[in-house]
Design a protein that fits this description.
The protein is of the alpha/beta class. The protein has 8 helices and 11 strands. The strands form 3 sheets. Strands 1-11-10-9-2-8-3 form a 7-stranded mixed beta sheet. It has a two-stranded antiparallel ribbon with strand order 4-7. Strands 5-6 form a two-stranded antiparallel ribbon.
Length: 203
Amino acid sequence: MRPVTTAVLVEELAERVAAGPPRRLAVAVDGAEAAEPWVLAQRLVDPLRVRGRAALHVRAQDFLLPASLRLEHGRTNPDSFYERWLDIAGLRREVLDRLPTGRVLPSLWDAVADRATRASYVPVPEGGVVLVSGALLLGGPLRFDLAVHLWLSPAALARRTVAARRWTLPAYDRYAAEVVPQRVADVVVRVDDPRRPAVVEAW
C-alpha cells in the first residue's frame, strides 16, 4: 500500500482518467456509505475539467427504486439493500447506455420524496466523463471504463457506519465475499482513515 494525501489521490485519479481514450467515459467511484464515495467523485470534477475532460457527477442514490419495491421486505433488510435498492436498469438505461449519444439523465428518483425527479437530460460532450458514485456498483451488469473502489476493512467499516445504518453491514459483508470488489476495481484505495488514504498497489 502506498500512502498518499487526498490532494495527491485526486490528482493521480484525474490524470489516469484524463489519459484514457478520447471518447466519452463512464467511471465508477464505488464504496460503502461510510467511505462517502460521492465526495471523491465530486472532487474529481474540476481537475478533470482543467485537463480538458468535461465531467458530470451522477449519484447512484438518485437512482434508487421506489419505496414500494425497495422496502417490500422492511426498512432494515440487508438482503433487500444488496439486491433491490439500486435501480440498476434505470441507471444503465438513462446513464451508461445513453452516454455514447452525448445526453444522460443526472437523476431519476428522489428517494426522500419517493417520486421521480423529473430531471432533464444534460449534454456530455465528446471526451466527457460521467462519474457514478455509490455503493455496491461493481460485479453486476453495470459496465464502466474505469472503476475505483474505496476499501474499508471490516473493523473500520463497522466503526465508521453510523448507528442508524449498521443494519446495512451484512450487505457489505456479502458484497465483499461475493464480488470481492478489490479484485474487480481498476484502482483500490484504502480509506480506513479518510485523512490518510493509501493506494493499494498489489492485492
